[in-house]
Every structure is written in structure tokens, then in C-alpha cells.
Amino acid sequence: MKENPLLLFGYSDACFHIAEQLKAKGWPLVIADNDLLRVKQAQKDGFSAIALDYTQDEALCQAGVGQHVDCIFCLFEHDSENVFLTISARALAPELKIVAITESQEAEHKLRIAGADHIINPYTMSGRRIAELMRKPEVVDVLDHTLYGRYEINMTQIEITEACTLSQKCLSDIDLKKDFNLILLGIVGAEREDSFIFSVQSTHHRLTPGDTLVIIGMPNAIELFKDYLNMPPSHVHTS
Fold it and tell me: Theoretical Cys-Cys bridge with 38: which of 33, 106, 207, 208, CB 3.0 to 4.6 Å?
């Protein structure tokens, strides 16, 4: 059990779901927001919550930043707020662990410069980052019920069969981002004893029956891709 509480800033939808999962796992946490109505809603939802002006260093110190709080989550809906908070918190506590959420690549860059340790952007998550998270079941469970749920993003596996459209084709022949708005993490190679092959590491791997694609995307995009794989050759168009 972690003794020091996690401090979650910004009672957004993402904050609610993340707090719900962490609380269920026994993690002590406090939600902080500069909007009194959101604070009251968080308390109504069963969380410990405080009104806090994150733009004031004194208020951050009083909340424990740099003292008994050693990890914060920046979960405001606006990137500018998360960037400001990250800068302020990092200046107060060089050793503080800061996790921030964003949907923008530009904001992701700013958050990194500001000093965020971990930046969660479900649209740009690399295969390596997800593979690292997959080694931490508790983190994956939280992501599965929060980020993937919030953005309707799923991670799924699709096995290559003999009749599959992509059978005997190379990974380099697949442009899932362009054609289906999906992200290909890699494959579980049938001939490599189920070892994971990142798409960026083995683009010349030829897909064979038994290989399994690991992809991320919206549910409807995944279904369209599955339909494509089952189409007869005469109906398949390649770019």
C-alpha cells in the first residue's frame, strides 16, 4: 500500500475514471480543482477533494507538493492548464513524479519540456510504451477502463489465416494508418514461438497463417479492417 497520497488535478471525465480505478485498488488519493462546483461533484462521487488554485505556488505547497506528495496527475481538460501546472510543480519539486494527459502532439512536446515524466496520449502511444505498460498489470487495467474507454479505443489481436487477404504479404505492404486509421503495433510471430515483433523492427516480415496482428483503433475501424481481411481477392484494392 502506498503511504503518500496521489494528487489528481482537474476533475475531468478522465480524472473520474482514473480515480475510480485507483481507489478500487486501494491507492490513497486526493482530487484538487480550482472550480468549486467540480470539487463538490468529486466529493459527491465519493472522493476526497479540495478546492485549490493551482496557479499559486503557496497553494501547491500547502497541498503537499514537494513534501508528502511525490506523484501528481495533470488531468485538466485544457492542455494549457496541464502545461502551467507541470511547470509550477516541477519548479517546486524536482523529484516529483508528474503524469499528464493530452490529445495534442504539440501539447505533448510542451509537457515534455515543462518536465512531465509520463505523458499519456492514446493517439500517439508507441508500441514500445504500450509493451512497457503491458508488463505492469495494474497500469494496463487502469488504462483499459479509462483511456481506451474514454476515447473508444481498443487494442485487439487478429490472427492471419490461409484465406486472409494479407497472408504471404509483408508488414511493409500494410498502411493501416492511411487506409483504416488504425495503429499497427506489431505481430506475434507463429514461427518465433509467440515472441512479439514490433512493426518498426521487422517491416520485411512476411505474414503467414498463425501470425497474429496487434492493432489499436476505434471499434468501427477495427471491424472494417476485419471485413477487409475476409474479402475475396477480386474485391480487394491495394494502394
Answer: 33
Domains along the chain? 6-148 (3.40.50.720), 153-233 (3.30.70.1450)
Q: What is the pLDDT of residue 215?
A: 80
Gap between the Cα atoms of 215 and 223, Å rounded: 12
Bridge-based pairing of strands 154-159 and 212-217 is antiparallel
- Distances in Å between the Cα of 159 and the Cα atoms of 33, 185, 190, 207, 236 are 45, 14, 10, 10, 18
- Please write down the HEC assignment for all residues of 46-60: CCCEEECCCCCHHHH
Maximum pairwise Cα distance, the chain? 68
CA angle, 86 as apex, 84 and 87 as ends, to 5°? 65
pLDDT per 10-residue tile (average), the chain, 239 residues = 80 88 88 96 96 94 91 92 94 92 84 89 54 47 50 73 82 76 72 51 71 80 86 49
CA atoms of 77 and 19, how far apart (whole Å):
15
Helix and strand numbers, DSSP H then E, in the chain:
10, 10
Can you tell me the distance from the alpha carbon of 225 to that of 236, in angstroms, rounded to the nearest whole number? 12
Q: Which residue has the cell 512479439?
A: 196
Structural contact between residues 177 and 171, judged by C-beta atoms closer than 8 angstroms? no
| SS3 state at 114 | helix
Count Cβ atoms below 10 Å from residue 176 Cβ, excluding itself: 18
**CB within 8 A of 236, min separation 6: which ones?**
165, 228
Q: What are phi and psi of 222, to 5 degrees?
A: -65, -40
Give the cell for residue 8.
Answer: 489528481
